[in-house]
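Q: Can someone sanity-check these two? First one:
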Amino acid sequence: MTGSLPCWIRSSDAAAALAAHLRRSPAVALDTEADSLHHYPWRLCLVQVADAAGSAHLIDPLSPADFSPLGAVFADPAVLTVLHAGDNDLAVLKRRFGFSFASLFDTYIAARFLGSTELGLDGLLRSWLGVVPGPSRQKDDWSVRPLTPEQETYALDDVRHLIPLKERLLDELRARGRDSWVLEECAALAGGVPADRAEDPDAYLAIAGAKSLTARSLAILRELYAAREALALSADRPPFKVMGAETLRDIAVARPGSAAELLKIAGCTPRVVGRYGEAILAAVDRGNAVPEDRLPAFTRLPRPVVPAAVRRRIDALRARRSAEAVRLGLDPGVLLPGRLIERIARAVPSDLGGLAKIDGVRNWRVQELGAMIIGALHDAG
């Protein structure tokens, strides 16, 4: 507890008081707990923060409080937000609250740029701080209230040590001259815009074995997939807990016409048939009723054609990248991801200025790898 600030932040007044307190800290550790194992769609269940002195708090997004004052903390360039593997945390907070992040440090990114083979937070805490984390609670239902004392401790510990860990990693990055690399990557992460989660009408085609089904069975599978989605939303249960994907496929193949026939299919237990049998059979009927000229087909998308000259440049860049990765002790994908290699090979920049204009290259790569990249492109022709 910090002054009069409670551990749990559940009211608008407490959120405003916490925001005022955090604005006075040079850094704020941040983590979230979202649940996708017990609810559908997933829900944000908890936000954890800690100040530079190690005082940690649990913010309850399930309460009706106004948490907007906290947005000013994360948008303040004078307050560094520290996370670990924060892609999902940032996306969740940007979507849910419209937060923006001005100054960011991700300990996962830092560990990757130090060539660490241990990238999980628990392992980093052990190796860099000598902290032994408690047992994982990642499968808990974080929407349940009240949390147990063990859950509270686990959640608070996720942020209590992040700022000291950041200091140790940053010291090592500075010693190796890579601190600017990581800060540039973190700035890009902070400014990223969460992608819209558009519904894919062909998602059912990704089920294992779908490509071997007849057109009629594909039509049934499509209806079953949609029915399972509706049932999952209605029951607030993840789709895989309603029915497994393999069960959907087997139903589509068997095309049952009764509950008795449905019970013969693996995964269609009496409980499943009792709960969902009527909806399943209705989906089968809809699939059977699709006219022949409107049946779906499993079509393979043609692989994009890569011109021979571009392929030569890609191969040359990969070869040079491998040598540089060994020299720097970094994973090749960290040093120069494959998506950047192809962009560079297609753009064929002739100088460092041109290289710097390619999306995602970053200034640190231009400075550290620019001459190598331009040389590889020149040699490949």
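And here is the second, same format, sequence then tokens:
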Amino acid sequence: MSAAVEGERSGRPPRPPGPRRSALVAWCLYDWANSAFPAVILTFVFATYFTQAVARTPVEGTAQWGIALTLSAFAIALISPVIGAIADQGGRRKPWLLCFTVLAAFFISMLWYAKPEPADVLWALVFLALANLAFEFSIVFYNAMLPDLTDERRMGRLSGWGWGLGYAGGLVCLVIALFGFVDTDTPLFGLDKETAEHVRAAAPLAALWYAVFAVPLFLFTPDRPKTGLGKAEAVRAGLKALGATLRNVRRHKQIVRFLVARMIYIDGLNTLFAFGGIYAAGVHGMDLTEVIYFGIALNASAGVGAALFAWVDDWIGAKRTILIALGAIILIAAAIVLVEDKALFWTLGVMLGVFFGPAQAASRSLMARLAPSGMEAEMFGLYALSGKATAFLGPALLAWATTAFDSQRAGMATVLIFFITGFVLLIPLKEPSPNAGNGACR
């Protein structure tokens, strides 16, 4: 099928010959790069270190960690759609992506200075929030590049491969953190264990990982050309376009339904990610080394799941893939909250990881298929908003339940509410068929 005919059927402008394989690999490699932050900082190493060593108590540290992520989520929700709409008017994505990548790496590296004492709680939380802010902004423009790199019938595979590579990146970075710094008698570079330098080193490691492996995207993956608008014009046009989108939201009913459903279930996923290591340490008595081993196992299973379900996405559709993943997560997460045995917790955790990747990768490919041509960055800005507009609810509800019942198990149980609600809201969605190539809805 010619590019012109396919473009006409899909509602997008004719697509020029696709980018080289090296450009696609470089794009996927950005997932490998940025995965160090959620895996090493948000979930396993630094999150556990903060609650166990920096904060006064694990319960207090859990609540403080949740508050910091909540505040950054508010800023992400407010700003992401605006910068996305402005970027669509300017055309290019990579300058924005470069800016936020550099900022994220810098803020992550500053966590090195958070020593194991309560006086450094504020320092750690401020730079955690700033790093999360820059990280999420970078993802807006990274995701917005997806529709320009492949057609609707292959978006599931490219998105899934990216997620799979991302989990692999998090896995390798965790292994380096574990055997190079945390679980060794002689940490690299002669780091001092008395001041937890061997654990704090996870921050500069994650920052360097992010910065170095992001480079291929900027070298090999093509960007959209400039539209010719100046910066001031792009800002005005972007704000105007975003306002028009919000005023005419009824024209995008399927997108709205998807974003609302995703807003709920991704809150559950993000909360699970942010507090998974903390929960393992507090409820099952895992020390930092064991939490990292658990993180390695979880990332390995998640990477396999994302890669395998990439074909399922293009075969049966992103919506059905998400529903399968959410259904499995609900059942397994409920069991995890109830189990007392650590070995069984390990087994269920690895099973749970298999469905993390598909839920996220298929969400990205579904948004790419639903986004109108020329509005990708704006739509992925709204996509980011949907991931953060209620992001305070997950950590806040978990923190409240943890404090009210003096139980981390009770706090973690609250994530089930988000998965079940998102599952139900997604069921009526009509999505473009990835196999028809004509934008027909299922």
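A (reply): Looked at the second one. The chain is about 75% helix and 0% strand. The domain at 18-426 is CATH 1.20.1250.20 (Growth Hormone; Chain: A;).
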